[in-house]
């Protein structure tokens, strides 16, 4: 049965909002929009050549992810989570994914195990070609296969909900030099444990894989002087200065 025009319009709007959300999230984590920058709906609509509806939805999703916040009389402002908040998010994600893979090692059907191994093998080509976009897609599919293999719908949906919230940080980690190969090696150990039915080892490996281990701080702009215009939605770029954790830093995280 085909979808009506209203349903098709909503689906298109959702897809556009997701695309805008990913673009803005990547820009925020790369420092294009620094903390304190104001994201103007009208300006972003012009940038993406779209109506304000998908832009508004994208900003709502970024608010849920903790990358921006709504402030009275100022609108939408870039505001990254603190070290401790980010650590707590990934701690929860690590525990949820550890639970998923523990159950998957016990409950996956033979066909599901073959699919997991196939996705893992396909991701090797992305690593060899240093194709980050393809690896991100296959990484998503890898973890999705494990969620479904747990055969616990409530756990799967809960994990997906948390994943959506921290997705920008998981995407950003692949900018770290050598991370694709390291991630694939970690996946390899997890797959081996699942295929031999070693639930506890698979669980521990996944917990370590997802949890935070590395921080990369990006240089931040100085506070604007009096008389200068406030930050708006026009992109600006900043050079990486050092590798260190700072309370106000923008983080790339290990795991995912």
Key words describing this protein structure:
3 strands, 256 residues, elongated, 62% helix, mainly alpha
Q: How would you describe the overall organization of this protein?
A:
This protein is mostly helical and 256 residues long. 62% of the residues lie in helices and 4% in strands. It is built from 9 helices and 3 strands. It has a 3-stranded antiparallel β-sheet with strand order 1-3-2. Strand 2 (68-71) and strand 3 (75-78) form a beta hairpin. Helix 4 (83-107) packs across helix 7 (153-172), helix 5 runs antiparallel to helix 6 and helix 6 packs antiparallel against helix 7.
User: How many beta strands in the DSSP annotation?
Assistant: 3
Write down the Rg: 20 Å
List segments where confidence is low: pLDDT < 50 over at least 5 consecutive residues: 5-11, 215-256
Give the averaged pLDDT, no decimals: 79
User: What is the 3D shape?
Assistant: elongated
How far apart are the termini? 37 Å
Largest sheet, order of strands side by side? 1-3-2
**Per DSSP, what share of the residues sits in E-state strands of 2 or more residues?**
under 5%
- Major sheet, described briefly? 3 strands, antiparallel
- What class do helices, strands and sheet pairing give? mainly alpha
Order of helices and strands: HEHHEEHHHHHH
Alpha plus pi helix count: 9
Helix content: 55-70%
In short:
With 256 residues, the protein is mainly α.
């Amino acid at each position: 049965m085909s979808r009506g025009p209203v349903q098709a319009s909503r689906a298109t709007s959702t897809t556009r909002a997701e695309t805008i959300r990913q673009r803005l999230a990547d820009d925020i984590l790369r420092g294009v929009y620094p903390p304190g920058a104001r994201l103007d709906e009208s300006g972003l609509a012009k940038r993406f050549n779209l109506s304000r509806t998908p832009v508004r939805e994208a900003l709502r999703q970024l608010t849920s992810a903790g990358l921006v916040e709504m402030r009275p009389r100022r609108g939408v402002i870039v505001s990254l989570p603190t070290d401790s908040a980010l650590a707590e998010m990934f701690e929860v994600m690590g525990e949820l994914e550890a639970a998923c893979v523990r159950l998957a090692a016990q409950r996956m059907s033979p066909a599901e195990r073959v699919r997991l191994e196939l996705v893992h093998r396909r991701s090797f080509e992305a690593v060899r070609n240093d194709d980050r976009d393809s690896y991100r897609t296959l990484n998503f599919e890898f973890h999705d296969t494990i969620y479904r293999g747990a055969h616990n719908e409530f756990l799967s949906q809960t994990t997906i909900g948390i994943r959506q919230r921290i997705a920008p940080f998981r995407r950003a980690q692949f900018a770290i030099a050598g991370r694709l190969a390291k991630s694939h090696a970690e996946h390899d150990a997890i797959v081996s444990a699942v295929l031999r039915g070693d639930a506890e080892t698979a669980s521990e490996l996944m917990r370590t894989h997802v949890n935070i281990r590395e921080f990369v701080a990006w240089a931040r702009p100085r506070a604007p002087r009096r008389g200068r215009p406030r930050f708006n939605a026009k992109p600006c770029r900043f050079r990486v200065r050092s590798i260190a954790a700072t309370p106000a830093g923008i983080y790339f995280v290990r795991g995912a």
